[in-house]
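Notes from the pairing session

We agreed to fold both candidates in a single pass and log them together. This is the raw record for the first candidate, unedited. Please don't reformat it; downstream parsing expects exactly this layout.

Candidate A
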Amino acid sequence: MTVTRPRYADPHVCPDCRSVLPPAPAQCPTCGLPLQGGLATQLFETLSAADALLIRLRESAPTPSEAAVGGPVPGQSPVSVPPPASVPPPPLPAATTPRRGFSGASVPKILLTLGALCLLVAAVIFLAVAWSWLGVGG
């Protein structure tokens, strides 16, 4: 009796939410996962490799008679499962640092303040020059 087992690389099922996909989708209609492009292709290839490894592991599993005896048949080497390869985690998205400096709204305020200050200085200079030229009686 053959037992159907789920595949990891199933082109008809979303790899994230496991919902059924329409033909040739650009993204999963349920969870919105993008299903086209280099990263999606790489994921499908990785899941296909996992399926192939799972098939090899099932083939090397002991038969029920070996499991009842408590080990492999003499003359057969035991199956050793290597530890999982250390895969570095994917890089985190770049953290946005808080902006330092002037915000967009403060630039007009600074320019307006500088303009008012220049106008005030010009008025004081004009009054000083006009006062000395015209005198007190003007």
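Candidate B (folded immediately after A)
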Amino acid sequence: MLSMINEIKNADKKKKRFLSMFTAAFMTLTTLGSSFSTSADPASEVEGIKNVTGDSAMKAELLDVPDAGDKFLGMAGDFTIFVKDKFTIPADASDIEGRLAAGGGIKNERGTYDIGSKYDGKGASVIVGGGTVEEILQQSDKGRRFAVTSDTDVDQVFYDSSIKAGNFFIYDGLIDFDAEFSKISRLSDEIAGYTATGEVVEQW
């Protein structure tokens, strides 16, 4: 009888261990969330994405930076987020009401994420110069536009509504990120050479 009881206990322990491992695996997959892309392909291979590279009118429209030359930061001044390489959206990040440009793709660790909710121009709310553009809320009914390079990986299934609505574009070299950040670097060096004329004090 004692032997039988021990066997039952051991079997119960095995079941618990199995359930624990199963739960851990499930939680890992759940944590990955929507950032786990199952069908990302280069934009050039995704049917329905318009390649408008070389169309000067479309370039001006997608960029929508008519007065960039007059702004302190140049083109970067027209974007809420402007990064040379990959932009990672942290799990606790707030949505971006303005526009985003990233030279090395977008990694989404949060899941549901919105970009451009307060931008009402005709330009692209999201501009990506390579890498992968992970899932961003599309708002295709509001005409939100995406512009990527031909080698940017895009999840065709997720972005299907934007592609079908004609809001997803390929434009190689839309932003020369190297050139823009060279300008910013020179500006930074210039500012660093200024002589201080006062003192900033933080008071509460």
